[in-house]
Amino acid sequence: MAKTKELSKDTRNKIVDLHQAGKTESAIGKQLGLKKSTVGAIIRKWKTYKTTDNLPRSGAPRKISPRGVKMITRTVSKNPRTTWGDLVNDLQRAATKVTKPTISNTLRRQGLKSCSARRVPLLKPVHVQARLKFAREHLDDPEEDWENVIWSDETKIELFGKNSTRRVWRTKNAELHPKNTIPTVKHGVETSCFGAVFLHGLIRVKERMNGAMYREILIENLLPSARALKMKRGWVFQHDNDPKHTARATKEWLRKKHFKVLEWPSQSPDLNPIENLWRELKFRVAQQQPQNITVLEEICMEEWAKIPATVCENLVKTYRKCLTSVIANKGYITKY
Protein backbone atom coordinates (compact mmCIF):
# COMPACT_ATOMS: atom_id res chain seq x y z
CA MET A 1 0.00 0.00 0.00
CA ALA A 2 1.39 3.41 -0.95
CA LYS A 3 2.44 5.76 1.80
CA THR A 4 0.01 8.70 2.18
CA LYS A 5 1.26 12.27 2.05
CA GLU A 6 1.65 13.90 5.46
CA LEU A 7 -0.63 16.87 6.17
CA SER A 8 1.03 20.25 6.52
CA LYS A 9 1.15 21.92 9.90
CA ASP A 10 -1.21 24.67 8.67
CA THR A 11 -3.81 22.09 7.62
CA ARG A 12 -3.61 20.31 10.97
CA ASN A 13 -4.00 23.60 12.85
CA LYS A 14 -6.96 24.52 10.65
CA ILE A 15 -8.66 21.22 11.58
CA VAL A 16 -8.29 22.07 15.27
CA ASP A 17 -9.58 25.63 14.75
CA LEU A 18 -12.68 24.36 12.92
CA HIS A 19 -13.27 21.75 15.64
CA GLN A 20 -13.07 24.43 18.32
CA ALA A 21 -15.52 26.49 16.28
CA GLY A 22 -18.08 23.68 16.75
CA LYS A 23 -17.89 21.97 13.34
CA THR A 24 -18.26 18.20 13.11
CA GLU A 25 -15.53 15.89 11.77
CA SER A 26 -17.61 15.20 8.63
CA ALA A 27 -18.09 18.91 7.93
CA ILE A 28 -14.40 19.63 8.43
CA GLY A 29 -13.48 16.76 6.11
CA LYS A 30 -15.80 18.03 3.35
CA GLN A 31 -14.52 21.60 3.69
CA LEU A 32 -10.84 20.62 3.53
CA GLY A 33 -11.19 17.67 1.17
CA LEU A 34 -10.03 15.13 3.78
CA LYS A 35 -11.29 11.80 5.05
CA LYS A 36 -13.34 11.86 8.24
CA SER A 37 -10.94 9.34 9.81
CA THR A 38 -7.96 11.64 9.11
CA VAL A 39 -9.74 14.61 10.69
CA GLY A 40 -10.69 12.48 13.71
CA ALA A 41 -7.10 11.31 14.21
CA ILE A 42 -5.79 14.91 14.22
CA ILE A 43 -8.47 16.01 16.72
CA ARG A 44 -7.80 13.06 19.06
CA LYS A 45 -4.07 13.78 18.98
CA TRP A 46 -4.69 17.43 19.84
CA LYS A 47 -7.00 16.50 22.72
CA THR A 48 -4.44 14.06 24.15
CA TYR A 49 -1.16 15.95 23.64
CA LYS A 50 -2.35 19.56 23.10
CA THR A 51 -0.27 19.71 19.89
CA THR A 52 -0.52 18.73 16.26
CA ASP A 53 3.25 18.44 15.80
CA ASN A 54 4.85 15.08 14.98
CA LEU A 55 5.77 13.16 18.11
CA PRO A 56 8.90 11.05 18.56
CA ARG A 57 8.32 7.68 16.91
CA SER A 58 9.08 4.43 18.65
CA GLY A 59 11.40 1.88 17.07
CA ALA A 60 14.29 -0.43 17.68
CA PRO A 61 17.51 1.37 18.66
CA ARG A 62 20.44 1.29 16.23
CA LYS A 63 22.47 -1.88 16.63
CA ILE A 64 25.71 0.04 16.12
CA SER A 65 26.35 2.81 18.64
CA PRO A 66 27.43 6.29 17.46
CA ARG A 67 30.92 5.42 18.65
CA GLY A 68 30.87 2.22 16.60
CA VAL A 69 29.68 4.11 13.54
CA LYS A 70 32.59 6.54 13.88
CA MET A 71 35.00 3.62 14.26
CA ILE A 72 33.99 1.74 11.10
CA THR A 73 33.65 4.98 9.11
CA ARG A 74 37.19 5.95 10.10
CA THR A 75 38.44 2.45 9.22
CA VAL A 76 37.04 2.38 5.68
CA SER A 77 38.09 6.00 5.06
CA LYS A 78 41.69 5.07 5.84
CA ASN A 79 41.52 1.77 3.96
CA PRO A 80 38.66 1.59 1.40
CA ARG A 81 39.48 -2.07 0.68
CA THR A 82 38.45 -3.16 4.18
CA THR A 83 36.09 -6.14 3.89
CA TRP A 84 32.73 -6.69 5.55
CA GLY A 85 34.31 -9.52 7.54
CA ASP A 86 37.00 -7.20 8.90
CA LEU A 87 34.37 -4.71 10.06
CA VAL A 88 32.27 -7.46 11.66
CA ASN A 89 35.34 -8.62 13.61
CA ASP A 90 36.25 -5.06 14.64
CA LEU A 91 32.76 -4.48 16.05
CA GLN A 92 32.71 -7.90 17.70
CA ARG A 93 35.90 -6.99 19.56
CA ALA A 94 34.06 -3.88 20.72
CA ALA A 95 31.23 -6.10 22.08
CA THR A 96 28.84 -5.35 19.19
CA LYS A 97 27.52 -8.27 17.18
CA VAL A 98 26.02 -7.31 13.81
CA THR A 99 25.50 -8.76 10.34
CA LYS A 100 26.99 -7.61 7.03
CA PRO A 101 23.72 -5.96 5.85
CA THR A 102 23.64 -3.90 9.06
CA ILE A 103 27.18 -2.65 8.39
CA SER A 104 26.33 -1.92 4.76
CA ASN A 105 23.22 0.07 5.72
CA THR A 106 25.12 1.97 8.42
CA LEU A 107 27.91 3.01 6.06
CA ARG A 108 25.44 3.93 3.35
CA ARG A 109 23.87 6.42 5.74
CA GLN A 110 27.36 7.91 6.07
CA GLY A 111 27.54 8.30 2.28
CA LEU A 112 29.81 5.26 1.79
CA LYS A 113 28.94 2.41 -0.56
CA SER A 114 30.67 -0.83 -1.51
CA CYS A 115 31.63 -0.59 -5.20
CA SER A 116 33.84 -2.45 -7.64
CA ALA A 117 37.31 -0.90 -7.73
CA ARG A 118 38.24 0.74 -11.02
CA ARG A 119 41.33 -0.65 -12.75
CA VAL A 120 43.63 2.18 -13.80
CA PRO A 121 47.26 2.44 -14.98
CA LEU A 122 49.90 2.48 -12.27
CA LEU A 123 50.96 6.11 -11.86
CA LYS A 124 54.27 7.05 -10.25
CA PRO A 125 55.06 10.69 -9.36
CA VAL A 126 57.06 11.05 -12.58
CA HIS A 127 54.01 9.94 -14.60
CA VAL A 128 51.74 12.41 -12.81
CA GLN A 129 54.11 15.30 -13.52
CA ALA A 130 54.51 14.29 -17.18
CA ARG A 131 50.73 14.15 -17.61
CA LEU A 132 50.32 17.60 -16.08
CA LYS A 133 53.08 18.98 -18.30
CA PHE A 134 51.45 17.56 -21.42
CA ALA A 135 48.01 18.91 -20.50
CA ARG A 136 49.29 22.40 -19.70
CA GLU A 137 51.46 22.64 -22.80
CA HIS A 138 48.64 21.62 -25.15
CA LEU A 139 45.67 23.17 -23.34
CA ASP A 140 45.40 26.09 -25.76
CA ASP A 141 46.19 24.18 -28.96
CA PRO A 142 43.53 24.89 -31.62
CA GLU A 143 40.99 22.21 -32.48
CA GLU A 144 42.47 21.96 -35.99
CA ASP A 145 45.74 20.62 -34.56
CA TRP A 146 43.97 17.66 -32.93
CA GLU A 147 42.07 16.98 -36.16
CA ASN A 148 45.44 16.47 -37.84
CA VAL A 149 46.55 13.70 -35.44
CA ILE A 150 46.41 10.00 -36.31
CA TRP A 151 45.74 8.33 -32.97
CA SER A 152 46.71 4.70 -32.42
CA ASP A 153 46.41 2.13 -29.68
CA GLU A 154 46.34 -1.58 -28.85
CA THR A 155 43.74 -3.39 -26.82
CA LYS A 156 42.83 -6.92 -25.82
CA ILE A 157 39.41 -8.29 -26.76
CA GLU A 158 38.86 -11.64 -25.10
CA LEU A 159 36.38 -14.34 -26.04
CA PHE A 160 35.53 -14.90 -22.40
CA GLY A 161 36.10 -11.81 -20.27
CA LYS A 162 37.48 -11.96 -16.75
CA ASN A 163 34.96 -11.04 -14.08
CA SER A 164 37.21 -10.97 -11.02
CA THR A 165 36.75 -7.73 -9.12
CA ARG A 166 37.84 -6.13 -5.90
CA ARG A 167 35.48 -3.95 -3.89
CA VAL A 168 36.10 -0.70 -2.07
CA TRP A 169 34.07 1.53 0.23
CA ARG A 170 33.79 4.98 -1.31
CA THR A 171 31.60 8.04 -1.62
CA LYS A 172 29.75 9.04 -4.76
CA ASN A 173 31.95 10.31 -7.64
CA ALA A 174 35.17 9.17 -5.89
CA GLU A 175 35.80 6.11 -8.08
CA LEU A 176 39.03 7.55 -9.51
CA HIS A 177 40.63 8.56 -6.21
CA PRO A 178 43.96 6.66 -6.02
CA LYS A 179 42.84 4.86 -2.83
CA ASN A 180 39.79 3.46 -4.66
CA THR A 181 41.51 2.09 -7.76
CA ILE A 182 43.57 -0.96 -8.75
CA PRO A 183 46.82 -0.04 -10.57
CA THR A 184 47.47 -2.14 -13.66
CA VAL A 185 50.12 -2.51 -16.36
CA LYS A 186 48.87 -2.30 -19.95
CA HIS A 187 49.23 -5.01 -22.58
CA GLY A 188 47.31 -5.55 -25.81
CA VAL A 189 46.95 -7.64 -28.93
CA GLU A 190 45.06 -5.47 -31.39
CA THR A 191 45.97 -2.16 -32.96
CA SER A 192 44.07 0.57 -34.71
CA CYS A 193 44.19 4.20 -35.69
CA PHE A 194 41.64 6.89 -36.36
CA GLY A 195 41.52 10.47 -37.55
CA ALA A 196 39.00 13.19 -36.91
CA VAL A 197 36.80 12.18 -39.83
CA PHE A 198 36.99 8.45 -40.59
CA LEU A 199 37.69 5.28 -38.66
CA HIS A 200 40.43 3.14 -40.15
CA GLY A 201 42.79 0.22 -39.70
CA LEU A 202 41.59 -2.40 -37.20
CA ILE A 203 44.23 -5.14 -37.30
CA ARG A 204 44.24 -8.49 -35.55
CA VAL A 205 47.58 -9.50 -34.04
CA LYS A 206 47.62 -13.28 -33.73
CA GLU A 207 50.87 -13.57 -31.79
CA ARG A 208 52.53 -11.67 -29.00
CA MET A 209 53.59 -8.45 -30.68
CA ASN A 210 57.26 -7.48 -30.76
CA GLY A 211 59.10 -4.48 -32.17
CA ALA A 212 59.63 -6.01 -35.61
CA MET A 213 55.96 -6.93 -35.91
CA TYR A 214 54.92 -3.44 -34.84
CA ARG A 215 57.19 -1.81 -37.43
CA GLU A 216 55.76 -4.09 -40.10
CA ILE A 217 52.27 -2.88 -39.18
CA LEU A 218 53.42 0.73 -39.49
CA ILE A 219 55.12 0.08 -42.83
CA GLU A 220 52.00 -1.51 -44.28
CA ASN A 221 49.36 0.75 -42.73
CA LEU A 222 50.52 4.15 -41.46
CA LEU A 223 50.90 6.03 -44.75
CA PRO A 224 47.86 4.34 -46.39
CA SER A 225 45.85 5.28 -43.30
CA ALA A 226 46.92 8.92 -43.57
CA ARG A 227 45.80 8.95 -47.20
CA ALA A 228 42.51 7.19 -46.45
CA LEU A 229 41.84 9.64 -43.62
CA LYS A 230 42.71 12.56 -45.91
CA MET A 231 45.05 14.03 -43.34
CA LYS A 232 46.41 17.51 -44.04
CA ARG A 233 50.05 18.23 -44.74
CA GLY A 234 52.17 17.99 -41.56
CA TRP A 235 49.93 15.43 -39.86
CA VAL A 236 51.16 13.95 -36.56
CA PHE A 237 51.26 10.32 -35.48
CA GLN A 238 50.42 9.38 -31.90
CA HIS A 239 51.37 6.20 -30.10
CA ASP A 240 52.12 5.54 -26.45
CA ASN A 241 55.46 4.69 -24.82
CA ASP A 242 55.21 0.93 -25.05
CA PRO A 243 58.77 -0.51 -25.49
CA LYS A 244 57.81 -1.69 -28.99
CA HIS A 245 56.96 1.89 -29.93
CA THR A 246 60.03 3.49 -28.36
CA ALA A 247 62.53 0.91 -29.63
CA ARG A 248 65.52 2.47 -31.39
CA ALA A 249 64.68 0.73 -34.68
CA THR A 250 61.09 2.03 -34.59
CA LYS A 251 62.19 5.57 -33.83
CA GLU A 252 64.78 5.41 -36.61
CA TRP A 253 62.20 4.21 -39.15
CA LEU A 254 59.80 7.03 -38.21
CA ARG A 255 62.64 9.56 -38.43
CA LYS A 256 63.77 8.36 -41.87
CA LYS A 257 60.21 8.60 -43.15
CA HIS A 258 59.97 12.13 -41.72
CA PHE A 259 56.84 11.28 -39.74
CA LYS A 260 56.09 13.67 -36.89
CA VAL A 261 55.39 11.86 -33.61
CA LEU A 262 53.41 13.38 -30.75
CA GLU A 263 55.43 13.39 -27.52
CA TRP A 264 53.33 11.29 -25.19
CA PRO A 265 53.21 10.96 -21.37
CA SER A 266 53.43 7.34 -20.18
CA GLN A 267 50.48 5.60 -18.50
CA SER A 268 47.91 7.91 -20.07
CA PRO A 269 45.13 5.94 -21.79
CA ASP A 270 42.61 8.55 -20.65
CA LEU A 271 44.41 11.10 -22.84
CA ASN A 272 43.91 8.95 -25.93
CA PRO A 273 40.39 9.38 -27.38
CA ILE A 274 40.64 5.97 -29.07
CA GLU A 275 40.01 4.40 -25.64
CA ASN A 276 36.40 5.55 -25.98
CA LEU A 277 36.18 3.65 -29.24
CA TRP A 278 37.56 0.50 -27.63
CA ARG A 279 34.85 0.73 -24.98
CA GLU A 280 32.19 1.16 -27.66
CA LEU A 281 33.57 -1.75 -29.69
CA LYS A 282 33.78 -4.10 -26.70
CA PHE A 283 30.20 -3.26 -25.72
CA ARG A 284 28.96 -4.03 -29.22
CA VAL A 285 30.94 -7.28 -29.40
CA ALA A 286 29.76 -8.45 -25.96
CA GLN A 287 26.13 -8.02 -27.00
CA GLN A 288 26.62 -10.55 -29.81
CA GLN A 289 28.32 -13.15 -27.56
CA PRO A 290 30.73 -14.73 -30.09
CA GLN A 291 31.45 -18.40 -29.40
CA ASN A 292 34.83 -18.82 -31.10
CA ILE A 293 37.87 -16.80 -32.20
CA THR A 294 36.90 -16.72 -35.88
CA VAL A 295 33.46 -15.28 -35.14
CA LEU A 296 35.00 -12.88 -32.62
CA GLU A 297 37.29 -11.44 -35.30
CA GLU A 298 34.46 -11.13 -37.81
CA ILE A 299 32.24 -9.32 -35.32
CA CYS A 300 35.08 -7.00 -34.30
CA MET A 301 35.67 -5.95 -37.90
CA GLU A 302 31.96 -5.53 -38.64
CA GLU A 303 31.18 -3.52 -35.52
CA TRP A 304 34.30 -1.35 -35.89
CA ALA A 305 33.14 -0.37 -39.38
CA LYS A 306 29.69 0.54 -38.02
CA ILE A 307 30.93 3.13 -35.51
CA PRO A 308 29.82 6.50 -36.97
CA ALA A 309 32.48 8.95 -38.10
CA THR A 310 30.73 11.60 -36.00
CA VAL A 311 31.89 9.77 -32.88
CA CYS A 312 35.50 10.54 -33.80
CA GLU A 313 34.68 14.10 -34.71
CA ASN A 314 33.09 14.71 -31.31
CA LEU A 315 36.00 13.12 -29.45
CA VAL A 316 38.46 15.45 -31.16
CA LYS A 317 36.25 18.52 -30.72
CA THR A 318 36.02 17.95 -26.97
CA TYR A 319 39.70 17.07 -26.48
CA ARG A 320 40.38 20.30 -24.58
CA LYS A 321 37.95 19.11 -21.90
CA CYS A 322 40.10 16.01 -21.50
CA LEU A 323 43.18 18.15 -20.85
CA THR A 324 41.24 20.37 -18.45
CA SER A 325 40.12 17.30 -16.48
CA VAL A 326 43.71 16.07 -16.11
CA ILE A 327 44.78 19.44 -14.73
CA ALA A 328 41.76 19.59 -12.39
CA ASN A 329 42.59 16.08 -11.14
CA LYS A 330 46.21 17.12 -10.45
CA GLY A 331 47.61 14.75 -13.05
CA TYR A 332 45.80 11.61 -11.91
CA ILE A 333 43.60 9.43 -14.10
CA THR A 334 40.33 10.94 -15.30
CA LYS A 335 37.12 9.55 -16.75
CA TYR A 336 37.08 8.77 -20.45
Automatic annotation (TrEMBL):
<dbReference type="InterPro" id="IPR038717">
    <property type="entry name" value="Tc1-like_DDE_dom"/>
</dbReference>
<dbReference type="GO" id="GO:0003677">
    <property type="term" value="F:DNA binding"/>
</dbReference>
<dbReference type="Pfam" id="PF25787">
    <property type="entry name" value="HTH_SB"/>
</dbReference>
<dbReference type="InterPro" id="IPR009057">
    <property type="entry name" value="Homeodomain-like_sf"/>
</dbReference>
<dbReference type="GO" id="GO:0015074">
    <property type="term" value="P:DNA integration"/>
</dbReference>
<dbReference type="Pfam" id="PF01498">
    <property type="entry name" value="HTH_Tnp_Tc3_2"/>
</dbReference>
<dbReference type="InterPro" id="IPR036397">
    <property type="entry name" value="RNaseH_sf"/>
</dbReference>
<dbReference type="InterPro" id="IPR002492">
    <property type="entry name" value="Transposase_Tc1-like"/>
</dbReference>
<protein>
    <recommendedName>
        <fullName>Tc1-like transposase DDE domain-containing protein</fullName>
    </recommendedName>
</protein>
<dbReference type="InterPro" id="IPR052338">
    <property type="entry name" value="Transposase_5"/>
</dbReference>
<dbReference type="GO" id="GO:0006313">
    <property type="term" value="P:DNA transposition"/>
</dbReference>
<dbReference type="Pfam" id="PF13358">
    <property type="entry name" value="DDE_3"/>
</dbReference>
<dbReference type="InterPro" id="IPR036388">
    <property type="entry name" value="WH-like_DNA-bd_sf"/>
</dbReference>
<dbReference type="InterPro" id="IPR057667">
    <property type="entry name" value="HTH_SB"/>
</dbReference>
<feature type="domain" description="Transposase Tc1-like">
    <location>
        <begin position="71"/>
        <end position="140"/>
    </location>
</feature>
<feature type="domain" description="Sleeping Beauty transposase HTH">
    <location>
        <begin position="1"/>
        <end position="52"/>
    </location>
</feature>
<feature type="domain" description="Tc1-like transposase DDE">
    <location>
        <begin position="149"/>
        <end position="291"/>
    </location>
</feature>
